[in-house]
Amino acid sequence: MARLADYFVLVAFGPHPRGSGEGQGQILQRFPEKDWEDNPFPQGIELFCQPSGWQLCPERNPPTFFVAVLTDINSERHYCACLTFWEPVEPTQEGPCARDAAAREEEADEGGSGALSPSAPGPPDQLFAPKTLVLVSRLDHVEVFRNSLGLIYTIHVEGLNVGLENVVGNLLTCLIPLAGGSQRTISLGAGDRQVIQTPLTDSLPISRCSVALLFRQLGITNVLSLFCAALTEHKVLFLSRSYQRLSDACRGLLALLFPLRYSFTYVPILPAQLLEVLSTPTPFIIGVNAAFQAEAQELLDVIVADLDGGTVTVPECVHIPPLPEPLQSQTHSILSMVLDPELELADLAFPPPTMSISSLKMQDKELRAVFLRLFAQLLQGYRWCLHMVRIHPEPVIRFHKAAFLGQRGLVEDDFLMKVLEGMAFAGFVSERGVPYRPTDLFDELVAHEVARMRADENHPQRVLRHVKELAEQLYKNENPYPAVAMHKVQRPGEASHLRRAPRPFPRLDESMVQWIVDQAAAKMQGAPPAVKAEKRTTVPSGPPMTAIVERSGGLHGNSARRLEVVRNCISYVFEGKMLEAKKLLPAVLRALKGRAARRCLAQELHLHVQQNRAVLDHQQFDFVVRMMNCCLQDCTSLDEHGIAAALLPLVTAFCRKLSPGVTQFAYSCVQEHVVWSTPQFWEAMFYGDVQTHIRALYLEPAEDQDPFSVCGGSLGRGVGRPGSRSPVPLRQVGEAPLQGDERSALDVASEQRRLWPTLSREKQQELVQKEESTVFSQAIHYANRMSYLLLPLDSSKSRLLRERAGLGELESASNSLVTNSMAGSVAESYDTESGFEDAEACDVAGAVVRFINRFVDKVCTESGVTSDHLKGLHVMVPDIVQMHIETLEAVHRESRRLPPIQKPKLLRPRLLPGEECVLDGLRVYLLPDGREEGAGGPGGGPALLPAEGAVFLTTYRVIFTGMPTDPLVGEQVVVRSFPVAALTKEKRISVQTPVDQLLQDGLQLRSCTFQLLKMAFDEEVGSDSAELFRKQLHKLRYPPDIRGTFALTLGSAHTPGRPPRATKDKGPSFRTLSRNLVKNAKKTIGRQYVTRKKYNPPSWEHRGQPPPEDQEDELSVSEELEPSTLTPSAALKPSDRMTMSSLVERACCRDYQRLGLGTLSSSLSRAKSEPFRISPVNRMYAICRSYPGLLIVPQSIQDNALQRVSRCYRQNRFPVVCWRSGRSKAVLLRSGGLHGKGVVGLFKAQNAPSPGQSQADSSSLEQEKYLQAVVSSMPRYADASGRNTLSGFSSAHMGSHGKWGSVRASGRSGGLSTDVGSRLAGVGPPQANGAPPDPGFLRPQRAALYIIGDKAQLKGVRPDPLQQWELVPIEVFEARQVKASFKKLLKACVPGCPATEPSPASFLRSLEDSEWLIQIHKLLQVSVLVVELLDSGSSVLVSLEDGWDITTQVVSLVQLLSDPFYRTLEGFRLLVEKEWLSFGHRFSHRGAHTLAGQSSGFTPVFLQFLDCVHQIHLQFPMEFEFSPFYLKFLGYHHVSRRFRTFLLDSDYERIELGLLYEEKGERRAPQACRSVWEYVERLSKRTPVFYNYMYAPEDAEVLRPYSNVSNLKVWDFYTEETLAEGPPYDWELAQGPPEPPEEERPDGGAPQSRRRVVWPCYDSRPRAQPDAISRLLEEMQRLETELGRPPERWKDAWDRVKAAQRLEGRPDGRGTPSSLLVSSVPHHRRSLGVYLQEGPVGSTLSLSLDSDQSSGSTASSSRQAARRSTSTLYSQFQTAESENRSYEGTLYKKGAFMKPWKARWFVLDKTKHQLRYYDHRVDTECKGVIDLAEVEAVAPGAPTMGAPKTVDEKAFFDVKTTRRVYNFCAQDVPSAQQWVDQIQSCLSDA
């Protein structure tokens, strides 16, 4: 029983003591005056009576009622029911206030709410003061309080004749039961009657309608987020204008949290004076009047729920974790069914007539029932994770969080993690974990209804039914007696508050009230305590846990097969069948990724432990340790699946003898795992073991057959039933027990708690002592265990210390994992960077002691160990640690003496001639790097990586050779290599070795040939060897001088950098010649290079190498300029002539002569008719070092003027002609960008030159003249006689030197729709498909010369209408952007680490981020524009950056697109030699070839050009003589430094080093190819690898490729890889051994099959399956060899076949169907229909219609369509099963040229008038069609060679068409006759 009310208080308004505007509450009276002993009077009631502050009111308000809640220091809640009414302020009322009238008046003037002064009594100014009746109670009976206070108020207002003292006295003495569902009628002695019902169980909260109201006010989603916020300890603030609503909302929210109790600040109504409480750091649920909303908005971390507005505001910085799915969505939908039952029926055609809507009270219970179910689902099985640590004197219970989360499959779930860590849940465990207590609805639900809830999940109606049943129980709990007698309580009359009250509320007689209270107390003392005994029972545990969502099997769905493999492997190990075990090991390691397999491993290992010990031999020990490490590496620090827990007893059991008296245990090899240094793991383990032993204490010895249970808990977490010690060695926490008679620890504890009161005092003491010593012995045991796992074998390294020092996770040192019996080498090779090599052992010991002591303190205080015992433990721990360190020292010493395990022998790589090994093989593991195929990804095939082998460093390459570690892959050799020169990034990494799971140092090497070596060094490789490898690699990658590169050291016997002196010779040798040349150039350069401060490539002397000794006369730079070298001399000196002849032999010159760009003749006899001439002005490289020696310049410009022109351009690279169109005679020029004073100046300043002109101005004039000369040298702009004009241009075009319209012309509307410059700058309308626009887009009036320059340079340039040239500013990307983009491209194609979820999308995303294709798009776009301009007759000068990067790319692409010659093998070579080598692309600088270039990094400008060519090749496969492999070959070797071709930055530097002409000299090294071209030439003679069989060029075809990114493809050079032999570009290495021919077996059986498996990333597919043509050519060579004839060259054979094909296809001018090679499609996009798949060996013919490419060219495709015969069009859309089969059957058909007879299924189709054939009857794909329209005759035939032998001769017949004769043969004569008749009848029908 409890008092209904503890105190009755009367609070009235009183002025504020400090005279502020507000008043304050004053307690007038309180009853009883003395505090109750069990319940002191709560402080601060006056604040809570008027939460908004005490204020006077100008009018009389109706009385208000609300209940505030105060929480005292013991977390007891006091309910303060407040009834407030207003009374007029009487002047006399001021009597008690000690304030004079003056002060009051002052206050009234200030507008304060002070009392009225007596001088103003008038009714209009009457003010009313609040007065509050307060009832304080610990019970929550809101309605009774409302009625009781209402009664007191009614008696006062209505003046009833009842003594208020009696009523108050009765109220204070009324006793009612707390719970138990009793009903009590009370009366306060005023003729009233009230019935009080107590709830059935005290533990269920009473909510009345508060939950339903909360949902109405806020809605489902908002309430759910508030629910989650309260559970995850966020701050929640309710706002409303109604106090009653605030307290209801808070009550409702608390009711939803049941069975958890909210344990933080809870203030449903917060007074205004206490608003600063809102900034408290702890969580809270608080209600505040909406008037204070502004204060609430300033709070940054508070979730604000506005009850009146129905909103919940969550600040940005607050994240409320949602419920785990599917619970969130299920809860949401069931809530909407409860709140809005009509929603389900809203769409019905015939809705039921009426809906039964639950009452508000009932709805309230239904909503609570939903949340009760939710908690039952969330916490289902929680009792299985309780650890019973102590039973007596009080239960101590711990909850195993990790196991719970692991079992429920919610380890990642944020919500549940936070709930389990919260205070509310801790309270839940201590309150509900108790095994013997009264149970309530929640216990029933969790124990018995789980199966039902799972079954109902997908049946909403059944869920609803369950909810209603639960709601009924909740309702019954609150209202046990529904037919309750009505209350009878007097109420005041209507509007009684407006009537003038007879008098103020009277002062009550304290003594009378006190007398009534005392009377009642005296009566109570006599009466016996009416205590209703609580019914206590054992709490049911319910079914074991299941995961919330059944996860799909995924990659490692542990099938029984996997577990079988694990079991087999372990039994092999223990039976000593090591080879068998070794075979299975990789499969086991893979299986151990799955949970079930790890558990299975632990169970199997348990079986092999006898008496806590299992002694193994070395190999067994290694196997066991490896498997354990593999198990543990995926354990998180929480160990939620109990794997580490299961292995813990095993690591102290398995051991091996190292020497007499020295035993090494497995724990010394598995320490490198994060779980061992996690205190929570140790605590959970400790409590689990303590529970086992406590349980064993109370079980009868007979009942417990578990041999391990008392032996120091050495066997994992014995938790079978909740906390049972199961005889099964390993059972997951939370799994069901296996034996029915086995009692769990909770059952035992429950029984003991029941018996406890009956035991004698001594017995109780004895049990308490036993339990305490059990805990104590476990603590000692765990101190030992922890020292085992935390003290490293080598005491200089501790994972704990590293964590102390912040060196964190597993990344740095490889701890003492001595698995390979290689303990010795581990010690030396650990990571010196860990910083602990000189740490004393005592540091380690200290760290471990501290860790163990902290653990011991925590668990012992929690489980009630006595302080004496605890002190004893603290003394023991350092001794335990010290002893263990001493035993470990011996183990460490002995383990280093073990013999190393035999490693596989190293495979030596094949080397090129001249390639030498620098560092012999270092043992490494090659790890997977994100290319899926190597890991056996979607590309298929087994996992080739990780592979075990060695890395070799040679003078040319870095090579890895090895075998896959997975023995199931077979004996495949894995090779990955790349040229040292291609290395772009090298980074140290720390990785786990794939076999032993050790942490090892590694290296990741990335190369610009798209290879990546991610290697982990073997333990035997010391850190110094690894460091040496890095240094050597660095030295080879960046030699101090270019002479150190492989191409230059290769094959040279003499020391590099010191050429032998030339022998005396008749003519000067090339060596001396090139030296003279350089000397002269140096003279010439003279001061010019000093005065003009600008970049020039440093000469070789300055590149860190002493000058060669034979350059005796090193000239001083200050020497005067020799005028003679600049004037064109009529007679060249002999040595110069020699130079000239060499220069003439250069590629440039050959090309100039082919293009007819002038001849080299002396100035006197110049052919005036030629517009251009070849000028030798730069033959000494005096004007421009990076240009070739001979240049094409306009005829009219003198050589000495060129010097001045060159000053206007960057790097002196003045405009020179590099190509001339044969048709329009327009020329293409190239130059560097302009200096400020160049054309730009000339455009800007149009004023006439002043007499005192500076040199700069004169050079701009020269420049203007120069450009003018270029313009006038074009035929159509030549002199008026009109000689050389192009016939195509009308005289109007000739006459006007019209411009093409300025690029920035303003406000001009006209014929030109898109303007070139703007189009290029990216503002013009885009063309469909990125194709060039119609040539008509250029205006007829075009400039003669367009200068394409950088937008940034040409800013502010005013075009001059009279000039005949025009500037086209474009935005170009810089070299650094190319570099950055390439880095990202490399990362995208070779990621470096396997993707978490490899998807094509992630590759495409990173590809897009690299912007590589965008740059290619820009290059192609600019090039196509230039091609258009040249084609239309205007010349173009490309003048971008320094003229050696983008300029070179554009100029080369333009020539390639415009001139078919450059698309041949010879032409392409010429193009690269001319534009890239002679015109000074800086290969060495861009490729960072030497130490000097290291900082600048690798910038693949040339590779980008090759990629562009590859894109064009894809779109026009028939226009190129070379195959795509040729481009890849150049892409690989331009960075490999194997050949000299791509070394150095210009011809000048090559001459200086003596490279340029030496190839022509007599001393030519025969053995090695020094030039890449020479190599290509030699190789092409042997094999068609560089040749494109589809080559069938159109004459004078100009290509215009599509350049949109959507039309570009990723070059497979970036993505493909061949692991069988490494990159296929070093041909000598890539040729594997020939396959053995098929042979008869000696036993006369059938020949063995030559089929073999081709793996996508391992084998070279083109070599494994060469295309048809290569195959035939090989076959011909083989046959010729067999016949003893010398095999003819492949090229000759191919040319012969092609010629024959052409002749065969001639008769009536149509191409034959077989003649793919002769193109009959005369339009510019000839990629249609024919697409060659390329490969290193020849190419595969595969016909496909490339639809995306044909879409752009409708006109041309329609032309083509007209040519295609109608029959082929038909056959595209008809299947073989089409209904038009007039006649069908099998015929033999003779193939075309050199093909055998084959049986085919023929179909005669009269509708389409054709004869089709298929491979077989059900084949749907037509293999060929004979159009009957072309048939000339059907005649009997004769059998030819290879025809079917058994067939009658008369069964042969021929069908002759206009193209060829088809030979057929039927199965017999009648069917042949039938076929002939059918075909004849078809022909006659036609």
What does this structure look like?
The protein is of the alpha+beta class. Helix content is 36%, strand content 13%. It has a 7-stranded antiparallel sheet. It has a 7-stranded antiparallel sheet with strand order 41-40-39-38-44-43-42, sandwiched between helices. A 5-stranded antiparallel sheet has the order 3-2-6-5-4. The longest helix is centred in the middle third of the chain and has 30 residues, at 761-790. The protein is elongated, with a radius of gyration of 49 Å.
Short summary:
The protein is 36% helix and 13% strand. It is α+β, with helices and mostly antiparallel strands. Helix 4 packs parallel to helix 17 and helix 5 packs across helix 10.
Observed structural traits:
seven-stranded antiparallel β-sheet, alpha+beta
Structural class: alpha+beta
Number of strands: 44
Helix content: 25-40%
Largest sheet: 7 strands, antiparallel
- Uncertain runs are 92-122, 551-557, 702-732, 734-741, 801-841, 1053-1074, 1081-1135, 1162-1166, 1243-1256, 1278-1329, 1331-1340, 1559-1567, ...
Instruction: State the end-to-end CA separation.
Output: 114 Å
The number of helical segments is: 58
Q: Which word captures the global form?
A: elongated
Task: From the alpha carbons, calculate the radius of gyration and give it in angstroms.
Answer: 49 Å
Instruction: Provide mean pLDDT, rounded.
Output: 76
Biggest sheet strand order reads 25-24-23-22-28-27-26
**How much beta, percentage-wise?**
5-15%
